[in-house]
Design a protein that fits this description.
Chain lengths: 149, 340, 117
């Protein structure tokens, strides 16, 4: 049954009016606290690795690897998923969220096999990040090569 | 044309009895307000299997076997089985019913499937093609999340308009004769599309279909809402229920508390984190089989309009930016001594 | 003090993401893409490195930091190796994080079973 445009617009307004909005204030507070906490944790690791005599570059890598590993463990235990329900972007945006988005499909799709399930689906969510990140870096590279030096 | 009351509604020549119904539900549903109504509550989301999809099939098998057993028959007495679910190519159904080895029709009506299987089964019996038909539907929170949304371990926030897919399966035995409440009229839904695109907001996508169906039913049967003890939609949830009620009021059918929704009944919004309510094929299937069927049987409900609702989407259609059309199927059930 | 700076800046970046989630209905994958690309561009124009100097992990840990790292990698590689750097610089700088994600993803999938949330 094809409804006319006016009916559709009226209904869209009705839905808009009836549907509760996301509690954005509360969500932002939780995102701020959790995101800030994860970054502070990163800073603590950074400090620690630095005091052990690693270089700036090595520290950066070690912090990333540590946080990714931690996120993988919490994801495997089902804890990260539950945190995400409350923290939203606070657990999504840090590198731990990136790790969570790689580990989650790997676990979920292992029943479809270690190749076509686990491995093929591993970058289901994070794949686009790498695709567009790499493409953007190439654009930056071309511009830098032509103009920047 | 004696059986057709209107473009969408038929009246069965001889009422078809629903001689038994069974509901098997998951842990979260068991902890909800209807927990005591279910025939079995399965604490383990995997139901002893090693994947969510196999678990869903196990729910189907369990609900169907229990329904047949309660009807006093054996599986071999069933002439046909109608069943459906949400998984791609209906594998929840296939692997649930394959070992019954009875003639079967796989059905897809999204979350309205229970209405569709019962409608088709009753018409088949009234047409004289069968004595007994087994009808059912299933859904599983985990298999649905995996297929339609995101892997379960992913940390994502759900908006307040989203619903939780009910884990479980419901089944009913329809019979040409026998004890139990009867199916009188069937109103078959048209696809209704008011342009909703938000896959989180299924209640809004389905409410227009539900309202259109209820209005068509009341017009074609010449009845008023007051002629029913209950009018129950499938899985609109709290927001969708209110939207449907508002649309019906505009059509001249004001609704009171006799109109409710299985997605509201199945969970406790205060204690359970379900946002708008329950959804999925099992939402209407287990609520009907576990909660309304016994009430009909005991005569506490004299007449009800049962309207399972479905959102006709796939991951592909949503990703392509298509709208989410809705559908609803209506069945009138009356308490009674059964068919003769 | 550096911890407070990391906390405030990291938290603020996440709040931007949260506002996008709640106001625009963007899916998580899209938010992550947006953050990486934005980080890469801000890194290229030199703004993000300054934020990193100020907030340390508060700027490197969010995915924008991952993006800025891609820009930094590609520019450094071009300085060192010329045009070849356009092809290799970005992913080279991301290699450590990606390898870690793949390794831990694989390990977690071996050890953990899917479970209900």
């Amino acid at each position: 049954m094809e409804a006319n445009e006016r009916t559709k617009q009226e209904y869209a307004k009705m839905v808009e009016r009836t549907s509760p909005k996301s509690p954005i204030g509360k969500n932002c507070l939780f995102a701020f606290l959790s995101g800030g906490a994860i970054c502070t944790l990163g800073q603590m690791f950074r400090h620690w690795y630095f005091s052990m005599g690693w270089t700036e570059e090595e520290c950066g890598l070690l912090v990333s690897v540590t946080l990714i590993g931690l996120s993988a463990v919490l994801t495997a235990l089902g804890i990260y998923g539950r945190l995400g329900k409350h923290c939203g972007a606070g657990t999504e945006v840090p590198i731990t969220g990136f790790a969570n988005s790689v580990v989650s499909p790997a676990i979920e799709f292992k029943k479809e096999g270690m190749v076509l399930g686990m491995a093929a689906k591993m970058f289901l969510i994070a794949g686009p990040v790498i695709v567009y990140g790499t493409l953007t870096s190439m654009v930056v590279g071309v511009i830098y090569y032509l103009l920047g030096r | 044309m004696g059986k057709r009351l209107g473009p969408q509604t038929v009246r069965l020549e001889r009422p078809v009895a629903v001689t038994a119904a069974a509901a098997v539900a998951g842990k979260m549903e068991g902890e909800g307000p209807l927990g005591e109504c279910f025939d079995r509550i399965v604490q383990d989301a995997l139901f002893g299997e090693d994947s969510w999809e196999k678990a869903e099939s196990h729910f189907v098998r369990e609900a169907m076997e229990r329904a047949v057993q309660k009807s006093g028959h054996t599986m071999g007495d069933m002439d046909y089985v109608f069943c459906g679910d949400l998984l791609n190519q209906c594998i929840g159904t296939t692997f649930g019913i394959k070992d019954f080895s009875i003639p079967c029709f796989g059905v897809f009506g999204a979350c309205s499937t229970m209405g569709e299987t019962m409608s088709l089964g009753a018409m088949l019996i009234d047409g004289g093609f069968a004595e007994q038909v087994l009808a059912g539907a299933s859904s599983h929170f985990c298999s649905a999340e995996k297929q339609f949304r995101f892997p379960l371990p992913l940390g994502i926030q759900r908006p307040p308009v989203s619903a939780r897919t009910v884990t479980g399966a419901g089944a009913a035995v329809l019979s040409r004769k026998g004890e139990g409440p009867v199916i009188r009229e069937i109103t078959t839904g048209k696809i209704v599309d008011l342009g909703i695109k938000d896959a989180n907001h299924m209640g809004a996508a389905m409410a227009p279909a539900a309202a259109a169906l209820i209005a068509a039913h009341l017009r074609e049967t010449n009845r008023r809402p007051e002629d029913y003890d209950y009018i129950v939609t499938g899985d609109l949830g709290r927001i969708g229920r209110d939207l449907a009620a508002e649309l019906l009021a505009k059509e001249g059918f004001p609704m009171d508390e006799r109109y409710t929704d299985c997605g509201i009944l199945v969970y406790d919004p205060q204690k359970q984190d379900v946002h708008a309510g329950g959804s999925g094929c099992a939402c209407s299937a287990v609520t009907f089989a576990g909660y309304f069927y016994p009430k009909l049987r005991r005569g506490e409900i004299r007449r009800m309009l049962f309207v399972p609702t479905g959102a006709l989407l796939s991951t592909t259609s949503v990703q392509q930016g298509l709208t989410i059309p809705g559908i609803a199927h209506g069945i009138v059930l009356e308490s009674g001594k059964g068919a003769d | 003090m550096e911890y407070i700076k990391a906390f405030l800046v990291g938290g603020a970046i996440c709040v931007v993401g949260q506002i996008l989630i709640d106001k625009t209905k963007l899916t998580p994958a899209r938010i992550l893409v947006l953050f990486v690309c934005a980080g890469c561009l801000l890194g290229a124009v030199g703004l993000y490195p300054r934020l990193i100097d100020f907030a340390g992990a508060g700027a490197t840990v969010p995915l924008t930091g991952f993006g800025a790292n891609l820009a930094k990698g590609v520019m450094e590689e071009i300085d060192a190796a010329g045009a070849v750097g356009i092809w290799t610089g970005g992913l080279k700088s991301a290699a450590g994080g990606l390898t870690a994600a793949i390794l831990f993803g694989f390990g977690a999938a071996l050890l953990a079973e899917p479970k209900e949330k």
